């Protein structure tokens, strides 16, 4: 167990509704709901308490049936971050606050425990520049540069995130470009930074790119990136689900 585990909360937002793939967090992979794959990865990371933030009794029941901890949140949450913040307040119950909160996407069943630990370490490391938020990046896969569903990250030498985009950035004007990086949708927050973030209104760049993390950058918040090796798979469509079914053959959550 990481030494910061007692002060860390891992929240998995698991909303029932989804425009492109309704109830995707409950879709079975090898007989186990998608969200349960995520929860078990969080448990294996062994770096904090794990709770699933739900908005529907059916999702709560599915989590509890697997032995998990589910917290009911509002159906009116504007984003996953709002749901995470609401769940953190519910778990704290007016008592001692966690120092760090990790937002682990409920539709990424193949997230690696090592990635979760790397994000927390990037947030808590005393030898790094202080960050409000931490996330993860991997080398961009072949064919990902022009895919708007693959979010790119621009990261400085000190590990600070400078920008996120659906376009291929940075642009290599003279043809001698830098290796492109793909953003992995996991976030670690300092507890006060999470509260600040959810109070901010949506920003112009956020609305333009439809990327929530740009709100933090526009507000002057620091996002640090952990470089990891393994890509995850976000299940957003039926095609993603079919790919996940193929990938999970022979695996155990």
How would you characterize this protein structure?
There is one protein chain. The protein is an alpha/beta fold and 253 residues long. The protein has one domain (5-247): Spore Coat Polysaccharide Biosynthesis Protein SpsA, Chain A (Alpha-Beta Complex). 30% of the residues lie in helices and 22% in strands. The protein has helices spanning 34-45, 57-65, 80-92, 113-124, 191-199, 204-209, 213-218, 238-247; strands spanning 8-14, 28-29, 32-33, 49-54, 70-72, 100-104, 133-139, 152-155, 161-165, 181-190, 223-227. The strands form 2 sheets. Strands 1, 4, 5, 6, 7, 8, 9, 10 and 11 form a 9-stranded mixed β-sheet that branches. The longest helix has 13 residues, at 80-92. The protein is globular, with a radius of gyration of 17 Å.
């Amino acid at each position: 167990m990481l030494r910061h585990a007692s002060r860390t909360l891992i929240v998995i937002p698991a909303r029932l509704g989804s425009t492109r793939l309704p109830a995707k967090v409950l879709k079975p992979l090898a007989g186990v709901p998608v969200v349960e794959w995520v929860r078990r990865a969080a448990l294996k990371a062994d770096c904090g308490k794990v709770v699933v933030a739900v908005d529907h009794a059916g999702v709560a029941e599915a989590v509890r049936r697997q032995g998990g901890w589910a917290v009911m949140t509002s159906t009116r949450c504007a984003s996953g971050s709002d749901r995470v913040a609401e769940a953190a307040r519910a778990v704290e119950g007016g008592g001692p606050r966690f120092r760090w909160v990790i937002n682990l996407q409920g539709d990424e069943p193949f997230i690696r425990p090592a990635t979760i630990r790397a994000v927390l370490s990037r947030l808590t490391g005393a030898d790094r520049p202080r960050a409000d938020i931490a996330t993860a990046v991997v080398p961009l896969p072949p064919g990902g540069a022009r895919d708007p569903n693959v979010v790119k990250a621009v990261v400085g030498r000190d590990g600070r995130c400078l920008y996120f985009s659906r376009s291929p950035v940075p642009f290599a004007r003279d043809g001698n470009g830098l290796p492109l990086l793909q953003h992995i949708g996991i976030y670690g927050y300092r507890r006060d930074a999470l509260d600040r973030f959810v109070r901010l209104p949506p920003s112009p760049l956020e609305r333009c790119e439809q990327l929530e993390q740009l709100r933090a950058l526009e507000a002057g918040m620091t996002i640090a990136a952990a470089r990891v090796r393994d890509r995850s798979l976000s299940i957003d469509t039926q095609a993603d689900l079919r790919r996940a079914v193929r990938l999970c053959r022979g695996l155990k959550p």
